Amino acid sequence: MMMRIKRVTPVFLAFLLVMGTFPVSAEESEKATTNREKGSYSEKHEVVYATLDAAGNQEEMYVVNNFNIKEPGRIVDYGPYTSIQNLTDLTEMEQQDDEVAITAEEDEFYYQGNLEGQSLPWGIHVSYQLDGKTIAPEELAGEDGELQLQIETEKNEEADASFFNNYLMQITLQLDSSIYENIQAPEGTIANAGKNRQVTFTVMPEDEGSFILNANVTDFEMESIEFAAVPSSMSIDAPDIGSMKNEMSSLSDATAEINRGVADLKDGIADLDHGIASLYDGSEEYNNGIQGLSNGSSELVSGSSSIKEALQQMSESVGSGSGEMNLNDIVKMEEGLRQIAGGLEETESGLTSLKDQYGKAQQALSQSIEAIPGYQISEEDIQALYESGADKEVVGQLVETYKAAAATKETYANVKEAFGAVGPALEKSAGSLSDMSANLYSMADQVGNSLDNMDVAESMEELQQGLQTLSSNYNDFHAGLTDYTGGVDQLAGSYEELHNGLAGLTNGSDQLKNGAAELHNGTSELASSTSDLPGQMDSEIDQMVEEYDKSDFEPVSFVSSQNEKVGSVQFVIKKKY
Predict the structure, then answer these.
(1) According to the UniProt entry, where is the signal peptide (predicted)?
(2) Whole-prediction pTM value?
(3) Of all helices (H) and strands (E), which one includes residue 120?
């Protein structure tokens, strides 16, 4: 009985185990199937690996896909893979066209998908020169000399532009220090990495790179050049430019002040040009008068010489034979004295008219010279104007004209007294002629009275004495007149040169006025364009920050637009030399 129970019990137990486990296994199996159907992930990451040959042609490309599993089970991914491989466990994966089905049980799942014909977002070109001559990479092995390596990256128009526009690329070269010496990379960063020297270049989003590396090589060999591209997702904060904005505000104010100064300068130059024009008109009037005086000097001297000779002859004639003179001679003498007196009156009238004309010309000249502004512009002000950014040629003309005008004003101040002495001299000469004319008329009257009183002898003696005195005085007058007219001739010649110089100054001042107007237009434009420098700086900085701040970039899958929840996509590209 006991034996029977012992025999039955194991069978019964086995039956119970079978009956008890069967429904449980079916339930678990159904649950597992349900989980596979409901499998999900929170995020997917793609790392794209590619190798390029020496010519830049793509050799192979594969993508390692990583899923952060949220719920274990069946997950569907997409990509035009030529083959796939599970990198997490031995579970088989299913692929139908571009659809890949995986069963994920762990927290993370990895698989690799191989691609063919997929274009990278960048075109990459590397060229080599040895001792200044282009050389094919396959010919470089074991060579010595001066190496120049040029790396260029460009946008691949056949690929999704979002990677080129938002990804930062880092190019890295590992150079053995025993092979490479005197490494120069102007746009790169050189660092020590063990026995190697690591050279790094960076290409910003939306940029095409061009970099050059120079080095002396011995027994050339090189590891693959690595290109790593990642999203430029860092957020860039605008820099604090408060102090710089204050400086820019000062610059804006200074530019506006320069513009106001140039406006005043333009107005001053316009006044100067008007004054120089008036000066030229007055100078022309004065020059015409002095030239006319010079031209009439010879006639004046000639006429005075005739009067002097006539007086001398009359004096000698009366002194040599007054007792033998008859009435006709006395009558002729009276007529001659009156003619000489009349001639002196005409000369006096001419000198008086000349004095009046000279006075007007001198007054016009003086007013024109005094109309030239007497601005005192220091060398510091002139230097500041040169450094203001204005047209240096126009500034040079401004300075040259300012100095010429100042020199003219100073020269006139020095000779003003000499010019002022001419008028009184003319007036004095005219007065002397008037006195002599009156004396001659008085003599003529005395001669006439002598004829009436018939006291000829006594009258002739008085006449002789008067004529001798008059002749002597006239000799002195004639000598002074000759010196005076010689001075007038010299003054006329010198002033002709001064007047010609004023003509050139007039043309220069007119050009200067036009140049000052152009200069003011330029400084006005400069002042207008720099009036809001702080605001422009803010705008430029905001634009630069916006250009390089890709923090709002939403990653997209490199292999298929059907993939969702893409957390990141990275590229690792290796190029053989």
Answers:
(1) 1-26
(2) 0.47
(3) none
Q: Report the DSSP pairing between strands 210-217 and 145-155.
A: antiparallel
Residues sharing a CB contact under 8 Å with residue 553, sequence separation 6 or more, in sequence order: 162, 166, 231, 232, 233
Domain final position from 187, 205, 237: 237
- β-pair partners for 217: 145, 180
| Contact (CB, 8 A) for 111 and 92 | no
Distance of CA 452 to the CA centre of its chain: 98
- 498 alpha carbon, distance to own chain's centre: 39
* Of residues 194, 215, 237, 193, the one with CA closest to residue 128: 215
Sign of CA dihedral 269, 271, 277, 278: negative
Q: For residue 111, what are the contacts with CB-CB under 8 A and spacing of at least 6?
A: 64, 65, 77, 84, 85, 86, 87, 88, 93, 100, 102
**Calpha distance 361→290 (Å, rounded):** 9
- Letter string b/e over residues 31-58, b meaning 16 or more CB atoms within 10 A of that residue's CB: eeeeebeebebeebbbbbbbebeeeeeb
The token duo for 550 is 């890709």
Do 229 and 271 sit in the same domain of this protein?
no
Nearest to 200 by CA among 226, 223, 218: 226
Rounded-to-integer distance, Cα 263 and Cα 516, Å: 8
Report if residue 423 sits inside a domain.
no
Closest CA to 36 of 76, 67, 80, 1: 76
Residue carrying the six token digits 């990451």: 45
Domain encompassing residue 210: 123-237
120 contacts 50 by C-beta, under 8 angstroms: yes
For the chain, the domain total comes to 3
Q: What is the token pair recorded at 81?
A: 């893979």
Query: Residue 217 CB: number of other CB atoms within 10 A?
Result: 23
Amino acid identity for residue 225 in this structure: I
Assign 260 a pLDDT band (cuts: 50, 70, 90). Answer: confident
Euclidean distance between CA atoms 195 and 177, whole angstroms? 6
Q: Tell me the C-alpha distance between 143 and 382, whole Å.
A: 62
DSSP state of 123: E
Say whether both 112 and 137 belong to one domain.
no
SS3 144: coil
Alpha carbons 515 and 510: distance in angstroms, whole number = 9
Q: Is 60 exposed, middle or buried (0-12, 13-18, 19+ CB in 10 A)?
A: exposed
Same domain assignment for residues 189 and 302: no
pLDDT tens profile 99-144: 999 999 889 999 999 999 899 999 999 999 999 999 999 899 999 9
Q: Is 508 helix (H, G, I), strand (E, B) or coil?
A: helix
Q: What gap in Å lies between CA 468 and CA 319, rounded to an integer?
A: 9
Contact 233, 202 (CB under 8 A): no
pLDDT tens-digit map of 245-256: 566 666 666 677
Sort strands 99-104 and 73-78 into parallel, antiparallel or unpaired: antiparallel
